[in-house]
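<purpose> Linking amino acid order to shape
<body> The protein record starts here
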Amino acid sequence: MSRRCGDATRATACRRVELTSLWRMALSATVRTATSADAASVASIHMASRAATMPYLPTQRRTLEQVTTWARDVLMAHCRVWVACRADAPLAYAALNGDYLEHLYVRPDHLRHGLGAQLLNVVKQNSPSRVWLHVFQKNVGAIEFYAAHGFTVVESTDGTRNMESLPDHTLQWVPNPI
């Protein structure tokens, strides 16, 4: 028996670690800067993710075409936008405006596959002194995700500052001091 996996229990644990590593490599995505050609994919991701992960929001009244126009003409004009792709298909996107994370959305069928974490790492690299964002207090999954990636709540409000009128948090990430 190998020293690394000396007994049956260890061998099983080692196989799990090796399979997990292979699984993560297989699921890793290519992150690249979005282009106007990605606008329809970004819009589709945006709409599907909001509908699936935030069912408490009003039903989207905009069409895919309208959201595509917004993604291309507004979002991509004012933010640095990245897409996480597998086989050249965008599956998630992040939009950074200065040090403010405007959006980070993942297609619902690709949640918890590491795409959000990959994008968040790119965001942190491109805003190394701080990243901040707003998140609805009801969006527990997002709050847990950001907490796991070093974000802390710096403010909570009653929702008067957002158009949905929902209580929200301001979260912030700052790098660990050396």
Remarks:
- Residues 129-178 form one domain.
- The chain is about 40% helix and 25% strand.
